[in-house]
Amino acid sequence: MFKEKDFQDNVLRINTLLKAKDVAEILKISRAMAYTLMQRGEIPTVRIGKARRVRPEDLIKYIESNTNSLNPYFE
Questions:
Q1: Overall average pLDDT of the 5-15 stretch
Q2: How far apart, in whole angstroms, are the C-alpha atoms of residue 10 and residue 36?
Q3: Helix (H, G, I), strand (E, B), or coil: what is residue 17?
Q4: How many domains in the chain?
Q5: Residue 3, in any domain of the structure
Q6: CB atoms within 10 A of CB 53
Q7: For the chain, how long is the longest CA-to-CA vector?
Q8: Residue 30's domain is classified under what CATH number?
């Protein structure tokens, strides 16, 4: 069943898809490195035509999975 609220939530999620430039800025890495991580599949992507985008929740999972658990500042 179609719900207007669900549709609006999905549109908001689509509008928050991140470009490689955004990923690079967030991770403080080069755009080329962001593309490399995306192409390797280390950061999952959504393909829209030829473009690749990253869901914010996938980037958060990537960050969490690469956090050094021995560092108390990242707990």
A1: 63
A2: 28
A3: coil
A4: 1
A5: no
A6: 18
A7: 47
A8: 1.10.1660
DSSP β-bridge partners for residue 48:
51
Tokens (6 digits) for 26: 């967030």
Q: Which two tokens stand for residue 23?
A: 């990923």
Q: What is the DSSP string of 40-52?
A: HTSS--EEETTEE
CA distance 42 to 58: 10
Which of 2-11, 28-37, 57-66 has the lowest average pLDDT? 2-11
- Look at residue 9 and tell me if it is in a domain: no
CB 43 within 8 A of CB 1: no
DSSP secondary structure, 48-74, as one string: ETTEEEB-HHHHHHHHHHTS-TT-GGG
